[in-house]
Amino acid sequence: MTRSKPAGNPLSSHQLKDLHAKIVELTDALKQERADSINLRRQYEDQLSNARTNTKVSVVTELLPVIDNVERALMHTPKELADSDYVKGVQQVAKQLAKALEDLGVTRIATVGQEFNPRYHEAVMMDEGEGTKEIVSQELLAGYQLGDTVIRHAMVKVQSQ
To answer: How far apart are CA 116 and CA 161, in angstroms?
Structure first.
């Protein structure tokens, strides 16, 4: 049985350098493609998250007048009807609406007793006082936010303290 000689390297050193350069080039291209893919995935996830937020904001914006009217109706309930089943039913609807907003991640903007903040509050009335701090003294219309996004500014009365 004859042993065959191991074949010598048929590639010249110049060809090896070219192949090594090609491997480095392809490796770099693969790394770049992976980075681009990761960035594209992140961008897609950000766009999807923004679309979800915008959809929630749009739906809540449409529901706010209904919520406002239910709350107004409850605030003006005649005393003689306060314990009626009808009013209790309307109160339950108001609670369900509040729970639905909460489940969506929507929160009511804090107002009375808070320092006036134009990011969250819209001052529609002002009581002059002796201080330099502007404090919200009355909420005229509730404001809502979803995370950092203000859906509607709270309309408030402000007093200097």
So the answer is: 11
Q: Give the CATH architecture of domain 13-104.
A: Alpha-Beta Complex (3.90)
C-alpha–C-alpha distance, residues 69 and 85, integer Å: 19
Helices within 8-161 (DSSP H only): 13-75, 85-104
Amino acid at 17: K
What pTM did the predictor assign? 0.72
If one counts every other C-beta atom within 10 angstroms of the C-beta of residue 110, the result is: 14
Cα gap 123→71, rounded to integer Å? 21
Say how far apart CA 46 and CA 159 lie, in whole Å.
41
Report how far residue 97's alpha carbon sits from residue 66's, in angstroms, rounded to the nearest whole number: 9
Half-sphere exposure of 141 (CA within 13 A, CB side): 16
Q: Which residues pair with 136 in a beta bridge?
A: 158
Superfamily of domain 106-161: Head domain of nucleotide exchange factor GrpE (2.30.22.10)
Length of the chain in terms of residues written? 161
pLDDT tens digits, one per residue of 105-138: 999 999 999 999 999 999 999 988 787 899 999 9
DSSP class of residue 142 equals -
**Where are the chain's structural domains?**
13-104, 106-161
Nearest partner of 113 among 71, 154, 152, judged by Cα = 154
